[in-house]
Amino acid sequence: MKKALIAGLAAAVLAGCQSQQPVDEEPVVINPTAQKAVYSGMLPCADCSGIRTTLTLYRDQFDAPTRFQLREEYLQGSKVGLTAVERGDWALENRIHNDRQMDLYIINPETPDAKRQYLRDAVNAVEQLDQDGNIIESNLNYRLLSK
Which Gene3D superfamilies does the entry mention (predicted)? Predict the structure, then answer.
């Protein structure tokens, strides 16, 4: 009985001593049946060399959207000048584009100023949309590919 109590206390102490998760790492998914989709690529930047972007979308065991993580590394030449990590909720909507039904991923759907939209226009790619939800007409690349 004493051994079991001591072992339990030791486990609790060790669990309390674990360090906090660094800000720039992916959040730990507690639910082992949860799924995630990861999209990454280099997006254009007006005042830097490019933005290395990774969008991770988490779904629950019922395939419903749960959380997201958006990691953006602003490059100065070949070096990272600034890294921003954003986390929050995301939503899934359907959109008809070019007579095809496509998935629309909306991160921060409840916060208009922080809301971003991505159109899943291929099996392995999403395209970032402008603030109004329209495809960005540009020769620059706004696509993220699945990992």
Answer: 2.40.128.640
Cα maximum dimension of the chain: 71
pLDDT, tens digit, 9 for 90 and up, residues 23-52? 455 555 455 556 899 999 999 999 999 999
Tens of pLDDT along 62-90? 989 999 999 999 998 888 989 999 999 99
Helix (H, G, I), strand (E, B) or coil at 124: coil
pTM of the predicted model as reported, rounded to 2 decimal places: 0.74
Structural domains for the chain: 24-146 (2.40.128.640)
Rounded Cα–Cα distance for residues 43 and 73 (Å): 10
Our CA angle for 112, 115, 139, nearest 5°, is 125
